[in-house]
Amino acid sequence: MAQIVNEIKNVVHHGSKKRFMRNENDADKETFIMSKKTTLALKDASVDGGTGKTMNWIDPASALANARHEFGEHGGVNMSIEASATFTVMEPETMRKMFTGELGAERDFFIYSRHFNPTVLNLSRSMAAMEGTEAAYCTSSGMSAISSVLLQLCSSGGHVVASHCLYGGTHALLTHFLPRVCNITTSFVDVKDVESVRNAIVEGRTKVLFFESISNPTLDVANVPELCRIAHDRGVMVVVDNTFAPMVLSPARLGADVVVHSISKYISGGADIIAGAICGPTTVINSMMDLHQGALMLLGPTMNPKVAFELSGKIPHLSLRMKDHCYRSLTYATRMKKLGLQVVYPGLEEHPNHNLMKSMANPDYGFGGILCLDMETENRANRLMNRLQNCTQFGLMAVSLGYHETLMSCSSSSTSSELNHKEKKLAGISPGLIRMSIGYTGTLEQRWSQFEKAITKM
């Protein structure tokens, strides 16, 4: 009878007919983000950037399929949304144990949704599975993910080495905000030149090497294994922004310590959500959630559980969307090149990083869903985009990427406007560079016909 009463208590606490809360004394050793099943599926699926040891490759889609599936409260195939801000306990001693860290989310004990929320936690498991990391945590935006990681890994007086070609918001964070507010400085280098990266690292001061797997907007491809080897040899953590290449590249399996995402882009796919993610070792994620010293816990860039629920329904078809984005991008880039246009795309053999990209990319996912057209001047770029949107309906003039429609923007005057003239020149950003995030609506030939009509009139 006592056992039945305890189970009823647990059902009331957990709110589920299908899964009971584990006992406080249960010696379950799984990490709070990933299930044992996922961890086992991924443990041989990485590349150590420090040693160069290559493990078995695993398809990101397969890793997602192996991740723990969370059922709904009444046995629904979709998980329930845990909208509560705070959580009850059955015994007063339990609350003390949760605040001292003796009990936590890995055993279904939750305190407050700024700390851990079951719905957000489930999305985090999916992100960790996809990127092949031990753990992950989802945040309210991509910039909150980046800033929280840097603030966790760098203290006052710390130093960052970063690529000189970065998203404008990230560049502004490193150039202006962190030096002014936190006394954290950054040396910007050409990450394609590994010697300049090595020389920029300051012994004892440099804490982080930060770069994008595919640079925004120039589409340079970073040599992730080599950059990780250089950084790790000097005791420096590697943080990679993989927003441009989910599924396509897996930086953690290539040696990166932490992978960040703006989930607002490809992973959402609907241009209707702002969200971010941090994927990395359990020790890093745990430190960021520490009650006394954690950047995520104390700065509070919390993801709404309703947003996490929506995103969890979008991840299962991400692999299909990415393959279509990439296939159309390669097709259009090849045809644009034949028209004599100055097109930049890693899938083209003449791209300087084409072979590097082939060596690192996950098989069957292509070379990314973004291509660039260099129209040389902003005026010519604007004229073409105007025709593509308002005359032939090829795409939309808008920032961001990963939408089902093609999105176009002149990077120099929009998403890279935070960089000054000299910084844009160093980054290789032409005044007339159009960044195109290729969509998949309409037929391929229909969309190509719309592009041809617009370019012919130019």
Automatic annotation (TrEMBL):
<dbReference type="Pfam" id="PF01053">
    <property type="entry name" value="Cys_Met_Meta_PP"/>
</dbReference>
<protein>
    <recommendedName>
        <fullName>Methionine gamma-lyase</fullName>
    </recommendedName>
</protein>
<dbReference type="InterPro" id="IPR015424">
    <property type="entry name" value="PyrdxlP-dep_Trfase"/>
</dbReference>
<dbReference type="InterPro" id="IPR015422">
    <property type="entry name" value="PyrdxlP-dep_Trfase_small"/>
</dbReference>
<dbReference type="GO" id="GO:0019346">
    <property type="term" value="P:transsulfuration"/>
</dbReference>
<keyword id="KW-0663">Pyridoxal phosphate</keyword>
<dbReference type="InterPro" id="IPR015421">
    <property type="entry name" value="PyrdxlP-dep_Trfase_major"/>
</dbReference>
<dbReference type="GO" id="GO:0016846">
    <property type="term" value="F:carbon-sulfur lyase activity"/>
</dbReference>
<dbReference type="InterPro" id="IPR000277">
    <property type="entry name" value="Cys/Met-Metab_PyrdxlP-dep_enz"/>
</dbReference>
<comment type="similarity">
    <text>Belongs to the trans-sulfuration enzymes family.</text>
</comment>
<dbReference type="GO" id="GO:0005737">
    <property type="term" value="C:cytoplasm"/>
</dbReference>
<feature type="modified residue" description="N6-(pyridoxal phosphate)lysine">
    <location>
        <position position="265"/>
    </location>
</feature>
<dbReference type="GO" id="GO:0030170">
    <property type="term" value="F:pyridoxal phosphate binding"/>
</dbReference>
